[in-house]
Design a protein that fits this description.
310 residues; alpha/beta; Rossmann fold; 2 domains; six-stranded parallel sheet; four-stranded parallel sheet; 11 helices; 12 strands; 45% helix; elongated
């Protein structure tokens, strides 16, 4: 069975279904909240958008919602443009999953200077860059390092000390990618595994497929691929299958997207982490609404992350 083309088609289909923005009404008196996400080609952000829209529909008397996302994980200029557009549209709050932990800070600082509340979800903005810019942005999201470590610990039980493993990280300038890599490393080092390669799949399935294929070719004794998101785990699974090593190489991911469930069920992927993507934006939106209503200081909020396996 040719797994990768089918999965890739599904990703393109998702990307074509860009969520529609909820119309805003300047005279309604309700706060307008903008959700600015990362790649709409990633099922995780489709799930996030749907969760946010359902929440707004159930609380339509309380706030208006504008939902936006970028085409690819690396479209930084497009995401900066979305932030600027939201300011022009007069939103009171921006809830953002930044594609880069530093590059979005100048635009967000301009938004905050203009009176817009900024709430950071999913990928944490860089603390030093925030301080330098004078930007205050509460982070509402999971402990990515702890989540990745927990997934890695499940994998470690299937391996033995000295086994070779490789890590596929996301965009290297993204804090959540750095934290997931660190969590995987924590688990592998504690179990005595040998990490032979760490490479970026840029969060994307096709890129990860090529990277995984290269790792397998260069390191024939690799026993596991630890992928910092499920999109990359799907690409890695296709590479493992194409190499004829489906029973020899374990794979773990992060996000618990629907497309991964069949692979979890039949053992092609051992485990993933569920950070409850359908609620992650909701947590950020609710935090923003509370600050707007109570005029309080935004505070960080840690959200749940759970290990999922067969």
């Amino acid at each position: 069975m040719k797994l990768f083309p089918a999965i890739l088609f599904s990703a393109f289909a998702l990307a074509s279904c860009k969520p529609e923005s909820t119309p805003t009404q300047a005279t309604s008196g309700k706060p307008k909240v903008a959700l600015v996400m990362k790649s709409l080609a990633n099922e995780f952000f489709q799930t996030m958008a749907e969760g946010a829209k359902k929440h707004q529909a159930a609380h339509s008397d309380d706030y208006e919602l504008i939902v936006n996302g970028i085409k690819n994980e690396t479209d930084l200029a497009e995401q900066v443009g979305l932030v600027e557009q939201m300011v022009v549209q007069g939103v009171q709050a921006i809830v953002i999953a930044p594609a880069d932990s530093k590059a979005l800070i100048p635009a967000l600082k301009r938004a905050q200077t203009g009176g817009v509340l900024v709430v950071n979800i999913d990928n944490k903005l860089d603390a030093d860059a925030l301080k330098q810019a004078g930007l205050t942005a509460a982070f509402v999201g999971p402990d990515n390092r702890a989540g990745a470590k927990a997934v890695g610990e499940v994998l470690a039980k299937k391996l033995k000390a000295g086994d070779e493993v490789a890590i596929l990280e996301g965009v290297t300038t993204a804090f959540n990618s750095q934290q997931r890599r660190a969590g995987f490393e924590d688990a592998m080092n504690a179990a005595g595994m040998k990490i032979v390669s760490v490479q970026s799949g840029q969060w994307e399935m096709e890129k990860a497929n090529g990277v995984a294929a290269g790792i397998l070719a260069a390191n024939p004794n690799v026993k596991a691929l630890l992928c910092a998101n499920d999109n990359m785990a799907l690409g890695a699974a296709a590479a493992v299958q194409a190499a004829g090593k489906a029973s020899q190489v374990q794979i773990v991911g992060f996000d618990n997207i629907a497309a991964l469930k069949p692979l979890l069920a039949d053992g092609r992927v051992l485990a993933t982490a569920d950070q409850h993507g359908d609620q992650l934006a909701v947590f950020g939106i609710e935090a923003a609404l509370k600050v707007l209503k109570d005029k309080t200081t935004p505070a960080d909020q840690q959200t749940p992350v759970d290990v999922v396996s067969k």
